[in-house]
Amino acid sequence: MIVGIGVDIVDIPRFEQTLLRTPRLRERLFSVAEQALKPRSLAARYAAKEALIKALGGSDGVHWTEIQITPEPSGRPWFTLTGSTAEVVAARGIVTLHLSMSHDAGLATAYVVAEGAESIRAASVVPDAGDTAAGDAAGSPDAGDAAAGDAAGSPDAGDTATGHAVPGEGKDAA
Predict the structure, then answer these.
(1) Torsion angles phi and psi, residue 45, rounded to 5
(2) Sign of dihedral through CA atoms 94, 171, 31, 44?
(3) pLDDT tens digits for 83-132?
(4) Which letter, b or e, does each residue of 29-38 get, where b requires 16 or more Cβ atoms within 10 Å of its Cβ?
(5) Closest alpha carbon to 68 in 77, 80, 78
(6) Which of 47, 105, 109, 117 has the fewest Cβ atoms within 10 Å of its own Cβ atom?
(7) What's the predicted TM-score (pTM) here?
């Protein structure tokens, strides 16, 4: 189930000028591994972090340097979260974060989908007179409902202890 969606766009030349004017922004916004990247890559990562905050519905407990974009060998980006940011994501029931980033023509953009586990429904729900044969709109389970622990987004042994998928965790950022 989708918990939140966020999108952000950054003007790369403007972002680069801001970094030149305020060099400490690299330290405040990016992990140590990210700080050495080119401005266009930093702009895309900034957009990704902003999009994540939008998907979360706010920035309470979120710290910029605890959000790292870690690419797979194929180049596919993933969030690697640490500290209170990882705790906030887990507390909001998010088990997977999907990220897409791009930069072209002086713009960097990022799109984030935060996915939560399917809600657990009690199997002992007794239908009342207003229910339909296939299950009522209030959430009674029917044959089409997913059971808790299904393959559609449930954490498995490969997920982190904080309850969200971060496939790039532990890899060095390119």
Answers:
(1) -70, -40
(2) negative
(3) 999 999 999 999 999 999 999 999 999 999 999 987 544 333 444 444 43
(4) bbbeebeebe
(5) 80
(6) 105
(7) 0.69
